[in-house]
């Protein structure tokens, strides 16, 4: 997509520090890193979120995420990772081209885990929420 910053990175119009690339995706260092080696992984085909993304391409894209982690592992040797994506503006997504953040983690690096992103469960308990999904409780 012409006006998409990540499509422009794919087309090399905008430079990047590549961590891994194949025909399906590109992984590059985040320009504002929140951890050493913070990497953004994108599919080469434009889609705003995973819900707009072609099912057929998902497997190839997640293989790129794995290859990128393997590369980070070999070069930076982190103790662990936090991996995820911001989805929609309420979820913190700024760039409207699906991207997975890979944050290499080290013991005692001062960061939190996914549970530290939000702690606002609302008034409904899981049993009430479950009813909204119908008769699927085990
Ligand atoms: P978000 O959409 O909030 O999940 O995050 C978008 C991420 O892309 C941010 O962490 C930015 O620092 C990063 N970013 C934006 N533009 C570039 C760029 N040209 N090169 C590398 N990273 C970028
Ligand atoms: Zn795009």
UniProtKB/TrEMBL annotation:
The active site is at residue 99. InterPro entries: Histidine_triad_CS, Histidine_triad_HIT, HIT-like, HIT-like_sf. Residues 5-112 form the HIT domain. PROSITE patterns: HIT_1, HIT_2. It comes from Candidatus Magasanikbacteria bacterium CG10_big_fil_rev_8_21_14_0_10_47_10. The lineage of its organism: Bacteria, Candidatus Magasanikiibacteriota. A motif (Histidine triad motif) lies at residues 97-101. GO terms for molecular function: catalytic activity. This is HIT family protein. It holds the Pfam family HIT. GO terms for biological process: nucleotide metabolic process. It comes from the Bacteria.
């Amino acid at each position: 997509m012409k006006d998409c910053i990540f499509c422009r990175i794919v087309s090399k119009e905008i430079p990047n520090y590549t961590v891994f690339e194949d025909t399906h995706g590109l992984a590059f260092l985040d320009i504002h890193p929140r951890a050493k080696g913070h990497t953004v992984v994108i599919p080469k085909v434009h889609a705003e979120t995973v819900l707009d993304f072609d099912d057929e391409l998902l497997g190839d894209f997640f293989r790129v995420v794995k290859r990128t982690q393997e590369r980070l592992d070999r070069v930076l040797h982190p103790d662990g990772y936090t991996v995820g994506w911001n989805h929609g503006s309420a979820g913190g997504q700024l760039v409207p081209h699906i991207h997975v953040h890979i944050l290499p983690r080290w013991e005692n690096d001062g960061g939190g885990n996914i549970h530290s992103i939000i702690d606002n469960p609302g008034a409904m308990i899981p049993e009430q929420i479950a009813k909204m999904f119908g008769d699927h409780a085990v």
